[in-house]
Amino acid sequence: LENSIKINPLFFQAFYNLGLIYHERRDCNLAILNYKKAISINSKYIKAYNNIGIIYIYIKDYKNAKNYLNKAIEIEPNYPEAVNNLGIVEMDQKNFISALNYFNQVLAIDRNQLQSLAQKLFIERKICDWSNFEKHSDLLKLINKSSDTVTPWQLLAIDDNPKDELLRAQKYAKQFNKKLINITQIKKDKIKIGYFTPDFYEHAGMMNMEAIFKHHDKNKFEICGFDYGLKNNDETHQRIKTYFDEFYYVSSLSDKEIANLSKKNNIDIAIHRNGYSQNSRNNIFAYRAAPSQISFLGYPGTTSLNFIDYIVADKVVIPEQNIKFFSENIIFMPNSYYPTNNKRLISSKIFSRSDYNIPNDAFVFCSFNNSYKISPIEFNIWMEILSETTNTYLILLINQEEAKQNLINQIK
């Protein structure tokens, strides 16, 4: 590409393709530089504007992301990729109604933009908008029958069919090709385990993993952290990283470079915490970061990736009849696959019913799941229970005002 630019310095496609290479290698500055060079030659090259927007989304610079995506739309108002990415910007900032409008706009341009459709379904569930619930099964069939890839994560809470989950995972997995078949395991005194995630900070999964890191038997194991998250620097992060023998910040490295760093450290077992959940980087494991690669905790569904050898589960998460829908070998824990930090301090705050204008003798039901995990099926059962009993109350964990209002409308 560099030679082609020497021959023709105005060959803007070559600058764009260089941008793609640096983009793939996670060198954001050089990627943006080359995309901008393409634009300086061809000011209407919408692909370059869109890709700059994608990079700014990745580094969470939403102002610049919107700026470049809007420039693409000024040139081509019906450019679905840029409209979809504006929806992602709004979704990341929890502006769900605005995001929903963008995804609906994409589908008005092209109803076969299935990534936008999946995100639309997810947001409707997030804000408890069940007005299209009866159509969801038909829309899921459209996604399942298509050869297009859709991230499986957003559909896990919408579709509880393990066979369809496997089919979606198989389609999505095709973009991650095995880059290295064999890796040599080096015999040593201690087994080295590498934990790979962008989530080394305070959130539900990591708070419970902390005790795992803290209580590894250091006579038998060495543990390394590979943190590819951005701006992880809270109190939980600072505490967690002290439990590791080695801890690396690798967000600026390419997937191949992270895998090579793992191999340089002679990692025996690579723990992939994120599967297909948000911000995961599956190609790290396509390059074989370790002889054994295990999916654990963050994504309990199958990845259908031929380089993920195992998944940790239990007989509740993966019942006997669902084993055939997993590509991974399953490591069944004897009781629960989910770790609990039994040294975590319990809040000293005393809650009382009166805080919520509830009588002291009332019976209180609660569900503290995320709103997108509630469907009208469960909710109608809850309403029946409240209707048929006296002096009973329901408490839900709802953050979005839109979700609150939709639930109130449903109750009425």
What keywords describe this structure?
9 strands, 44% helix, globular, 11% strand, alpha/beta, 7-stranded parallel beta sheet, 412 residues, two-stranded parallel sheet
Provide an overview of this structure.
This protein has 16 helices and nine strands. The chain starts with a helix and ends with a helix. The model has no long low-confidence stretch (mean pLDDT 94). The longest helix is centred in the first third of the chain and has 14 residues, at 28-41. Helix 3 (28-41) packs antiparallel against helix 4 (46-58) and helix 4 (46-58) packs antiparallel against helix 5 (62-75). 44% of the residues lie in helices and 11% in strands. With 412 residues, the protein is α/β, with parallel strands linked by helices. It has helices at 2-7, 12-24, 28-41, 46-58, 62-75, 80-92, 96-109, 114-126, 133-145, 162-173, 204-215, 235-240, 255-264, 283-286, 376-388, 401-411; strands spanning 191-197, 221-227, 246-249, 269-272, 292-295, 310-313, 329-332, 363-367, 392-396. The strands form two sheets. It has a seven-stranded parallel β-sheet, with no helix packed on it. Strands 8-9 form a two-stranded parallel sheet. 34% of the residues are buried.
